[in-house]
Amino acid sequence: MSSASFCILAVSLALACSLSLAADPQPGADRLPLDRVVLFTSGVGFFQHTGKLTDDATVEMKFPAADVNDLLKSMVLEDLDGGSVSTVSYASRDPITKTLGTFAVNLTDNPSLGQIIGRLRGEKVELDAANRVAGTIVGVERRTIPAGEKQTVEKEFLILLTAGGLRTLALDAITEIRLVDKRLQGELEKALAVLALGHDNDKKSVVLQFTGKGERNVRVGYVQESPLWKTSYRLVLDEPAAGEQRTKARLQGWAIVENTTDRDWKDVRMSLVSGRPISFTMDLYQPLYVPRPQVVPELYASLLPQVYGQDLAAAEEKFRRARGEGDGDGVLPNAKRLERAKDATAAAIATPRAAAGEAESLQEAAKQMFTAAQGIRSLAAGENLGELFRYEIEQPVTIDRQRSAMLPIVAETVEVEKVAIYDERVLAKHPLAGLRLVNSTKLNLMQGPLTVFEAGGYAGDARIEDMAPGSERLLSYAIDLDVEVNPRNQSQADEMLAVKIVKGTLVVTRKATRKKVFEIKNSGSKPVKMLVEHPRDGGNWKLVAPEKTAETTRDRYRFAVLAEPGKPATLEVVEEQPGEQRIALSNIDAGQIGIFVQSKVPSQRIKDALGQVLAKKRAIEEIVRTKQEKEREIQVVEQEQNRLRQNMANLDRTNDLYLKYVRKMTEQEDRVDVLRKEITALIQKEQAARRELDDFLQQLELD
User: For residue 227, which of 445, 389, 71, 405 has the smallest C-alpha distance?
Assistant: First the structure.
């Protein structure tokens, strides 16, 4: 037998032995078949396996690696007839090479038989070759051996230490190798088992251990990612009676279910849950480590050895010992010191022994606590659907892997009302042909597309949102070309409602009005019930006309209008918005005051007060105007003086013209002094007038 063939045989035998020693885990699909599937609209599904086990049993199930996190978060196990769940073990997330590196025999690099034996150096083995041989592995050597003329081959030889000495055996002459060390044999078998599981890199093994006596029923349930199930509907309309808008319709609802798993669903109980339960993912599969601070040991500088002078008394004692003299008790002083040192050492040794005794007591107490914790049983929690709605499929369902199916969930007669729905923002010219659908079934209708059939043919597509039993929804499925709508806006001026004065502030209450007119023309042969949608804006806009609406949503008014054939219909929508304007009377001008004085809304007292305010403001304005004139006069004088100074710079001081300029500048300076005094007086007068106005306004409160 060649070395390579023996390697394959050894691996196969070790692998078979490994599986026989692993408590015989059975495939979960055989012992615990899938019998129930619950699909949710949040992207997850609940899967339940049920079966019978006898005595202590181990069940192995395989899952995609991407689903292990959901498994760790949601798995529920029940041993229903007196047994209990022991442990759930699963494969590590580490790469297989890292896992193989943890075993005593490293098979990471796909070693040959010679390499495996080389890694077992020093281990005792039993060999079957020409004779049975037992010994200790020393190593493996390669030899070049002639194989015909001018040809050589390399062969591997095992070097073995036996009772008779060192021996070499050709590996291809060995038929069986047995490890004497059972622990090492177990390590090799475990490494081979890991290799076998690694053939499917996308699958992870989960082993469930159940303990008990006799035959028992067990259940295993878990949540995994799953495509959300979808719904689609068909609505077949009956022709309404003459003059009626309401009629009956046959509603069919289908659930679209997809089996994207790697196992067939055979005769499973299927449940479909509508609603939006909160679902999330969490990485529980990845090992997490808490970072810890690093503490550096304290280091102390060593001292240099010191040399000390001899004690004179000690020197005298040395001379006494040399003469044969000792202590009175016959024991030398140094001997006493040695005995004391021994006693101290014994005490020091006794102390850690006592501490060790305390530690053993603590370990025993901890062991008892752990033993008590082992008796806790894990109980599965019951399913609680809460506010969700569940469809139970009455017949068992079979869907092969990677296949999909349509399942009927609704087959009922419902009541509908034909309407035309108009929304200017959707289509300005025509309304949409629609229906008011009443969910008269006892089922929740989940959102989805709806195909409408009328008069034996296809009429259009609609979309419905989630509908509880007894609720109503509007659906639109086509454009109604027989009806035409002309919307137009009519502008309205703001209206002043009231005026009052509060602490110098004019408070004006106004009312804004807007009007929308819809002109409707029905060119068909039958009356049409129209639902006109109008935006329901914020900003305190209040509906005035029409007084009542047919319906009101969060952001729409709906008005019902009956459009007779050949007769125009009109809908006027009027809205009002009250508003308040605040004007500080200290900043109001004469033009604004004139508007309020001429209006009929303010009272006469308010008009009189506004007149007083206007008079005081005009007085202040007159003071300001006078002050500004005097300031401008000063500016003119200063400009004239600058001109005179330039001319005087070129004249002799005894010149008559120079003296004339001097007299003129003196007169101008006198005038500037007078103007500055007048400006100062005007400023004080202006300030007093403004204080008077402010005091007047602060005390002014009129309705």
Answer: 405
Task: Examine the pLDDT at 101 and tell me if it is beyond 80.
Answer: no
**Distance set, CA 127 to CA 17, 136, 173 (Å):** 18, 11, 10
How far is 587 from 617, CA to CA, in rounded Å? 10
> Could you tell me the domains of the chain?
3-32+59-223 (no CATH), 230-260+402-481 (no CATH), 485-584 (no CATH), 605-702 (1.20.120.330)
Instruction: Give the pLDDT confidence of 391-418 residue by residue, as tens digits.
Output: 888 889 999 999 999 999 888 889 899 9
Written in H, E and C, the secondary structure of 145-163 is: EECCCCCEEEEEEEEEEEC
- Please say whether the beta carbons of 234 and 91 come within 8 A: no
CA distance 466 to 605: 62
Separation between Cα atoms, residue 108 and residue 97, nearest integer Å? 5
Helix (H/G/I), strand (E/B), else coil: 310:
coil
Distance CA 480, CA 421 (A): 9
Q: Read off the amino acid at residue 593.
A: I
For the ranges 29-33, 551-555, 640-644, which has the lowest average pLDDT?
Answer: 29-33
Least confident of 330-334, 483-487, 510-514, 604-608: 330-334
- 173: DSSP letter: G
Pairwise pLDDT comparison (13 vs 212), residue with the higher score: 212
Of 12-26, 160-174, 214-228, 319-333, least confident by mean pLDDT is 12-26
Asked if residue 17 lies in contact with residue 170, where contact means CB atoms within 8 angstroms, the answer is: no
How confident is the prediction for the chain on average, in pLDDT? 78
Please give the Cα distance from 581 to 495 (Å, whole number).
12
Q: Which tokens is 528 given? A: 């049409």
Residue 24, H or E segment: none
Residue type, 236: V
Cis peptide before 33 (omega within 30 of 0): no
The pLDDT score that the predictor gives to residue 29 is 56
Separation of alpha carbons 198 and 30, rounded Å: 22
Tally of CB atoms within 10 A around 379: 12
CB 380 within 8 A of CB 219: yes
3-state secondary structure 596-625: HHHCCCCCHHHHHHHHHHHHHHHHHHHHHH
* Cα–Cα distance, 122 to 430 (Å, whole number): 94
Q: Are 63 and 223 in contact (CB under 8 A)?
A: no
pLDDT band at residue 373 under the 50/70/90 scheme: very low
Longest Cα–Cα distance of the chain, Å, equals: 155
Residue 383 binned pLDDT confidence (cut-offs 50, 70, 90):
very low
Q: How far apart are the first and last CA of the chain?
A: 119
pLDDT in tens, 253-305: 999 999 998 889 999 999 998 867 788 888 888 888 888 898 888 776 666 66
The number of CA neighbours under 13 Å toward the Cβ of 630 is: 18
Whose CA is closest to 483, among 571, 572, 562?
562
Task: Return the structure tokens found at 488.
Answer: 């137009």
CB 32, CB 49: distance < 8 Å: yes
- Alpha-carbon span 291 to 260, nearest angstrom: 40
Beta strands (DSSP E) in 564-612 are 569-584
**238: which 2 tokens?**
């009956």
Retrieve residue 102's tokens: 């943890």
Token readout for 519 is 């002109």
Q: Give residue 199's pLDDT band: very low, low, confident or very high (50, 70, 90).
A: low
pLDDT band at 46 (very low <50, low <70, confident <90, very high): very high
* pTM metric for this prediction: 0.58
Closest CA to 161 of 122, 103, 197, 128: 122
Q: What one-letter code names the amino acid at 423? A: D
Single-letter code of the amino acid located at 129 = A
Comparing CA positions, the residue from 386, 576, 552 lying closest to residue 497 is 576
- CB contact at 8 A, 107 and 191: yes
